[in-house]
Amino acid sequence: VQLQASGGGLVQSGGSLRLSCVASGNIFRIDDMNWYRQAPGKQRELVAGITSDGTRTYGDSAKGRFTISRDNAKKTVYLQMNSLKPEDTAVYYCYADLGAMDPLGTVVVGKYWGQGTLVTVSG
Q1: Contact in structure between 98 and 112 (CB atoms under 8 Å)
Q2: I need a surface site. Which of 19, 26, 38, 104 has the fewest CB within 10 A?
Q3: Residue among 81, 94, 75 nearest 34 (CA)
């Protein structure tokens, strides 16, 4: 199982970015899919989360500016980020709580993290 995040980059204050994270592997179920971020010198924090039935949760920093969505058929979660601020600068990580089959056919249920994608917002 792998989570591959993409879409980060350098953007000016007030701009927008759309992050994507696709899960791959012999996955038969994905429950929660979340985005976290970690800025230099700070703890990792929840940005947004979405359950398998579409219920959304947002961290205080994301409310009103970011939108999380998912495409279950594509095993992908998105984070649309608008009105970006310099304080949004961080490495963004995707997370999924899922069930899969390993190469031996054993059911594996667990929490997986993507590799992170860097978002830099210039002031």
Answers
A1: yes
A2: 104
A3: 94
Please tell me the distance from the alpha carbon of residue 123 to that of residue 47, in angstroms, as a whole number. 21
> 121 with 88: CB under 8 angstroms?
yes
CB-neighbour burial class of residue 63 (10 A; exposed 0-12, middle 13-18, buried 19+): exposed
The backbone torsions φ and ψ at residue 88, rounded to the nearest 5 degrees and listed phi first, read: -85, -5
Query: pLDDT of 113-122, one tens digit each?
Result: 999 999 999 9
